[in-house]
Amino acid sequence: MIKAGIIGGAGYTAGELIRLLLNHPEVVLDFVYSTSNAGNKIYRIHSDLIGDTEMKFVQHINPDIDVLFLCLGHGNSKSFLGEHEFSSRTKIIDLSNDFRLAEDHVFQGKSFVYGLPELFRDDIKKATHIANPGCFATAIQLALLPLAKAGMLKTDVHVNAVTGATGAGTGLSKTTHFTWRDNNFSHYKTFEHQHLGEIVQHMHILQPEFENEVVFIPNRGNFSRGIFATAYTYFEGDLEDARTLYDEFYKDAVFTHISDHELFLKQVVNTNKCLLHLIKHKNKLLITSAIDNLLKGASGQAIQNMNLMFGFQESEGLALKANFF
Question: Among residues 20, 49, 124, 135, which one is catalytic?
Fold first, then answer.
């Protein structure tokens, strides 16, 4: 059994992480740190955990743990690690965007490996520090990686993706209120979403000559969780050629699967899966990608990375059923 700690315990991703760790057969959850909720029982904030734990949020840390999860707002992980020290054997998985880009991956002598198992599994197994990918970045990269690996991204890639309300976090704003979100739909951060940096840098790693754009339109949906993304680009082969590329690239992937049938979001909600579907129309290939933004897009992928880092079965603690009905 390994000891785990969580920093920033009140948000949606932390809530999912607590749920997964409490039920993981190889983990003891040692503490959940939250200065704003210290002394409160965890289930007072994450009410789905009533009956599962009597743990309380704390405002002190145990530096001698095996794995630390950082569930802090973007920009806060660096400052937290700058102010706190942990054991030299403590492995760190950061869920913010502080260390995802190549220019940011080294901090205080610690090198953060980008935690997308379908691309960097072997590196993750040897890593001590992980930068967990963004949710949109996960869905979109998994849609495009096989094409980049084959050097077949010849033109711009157009992506349209919609995310649920939990993607905005627990903080209130005009666009997170029920009266605004219900029966509504809108786009935001068009062409310049922060996850584009992650996506493009890994397209270049797999296909260095890729100089085209990933044109990304992110949307807000009037549902709680999940990401449904469609990407299309020029493809000179036929559908069978594309399917062969994707089957080969993901042949060893535990959670990423290619479906023969068109997708819908409820197939993946509450799971760590990414489902992909391919359509060929004239000279365009359309790839549909669906994930749960809080699981494969955040906390579930963090557990997947932890499993790889500690030599556990990659799917351990992640056998989750979709909210299909």
Answer: 135
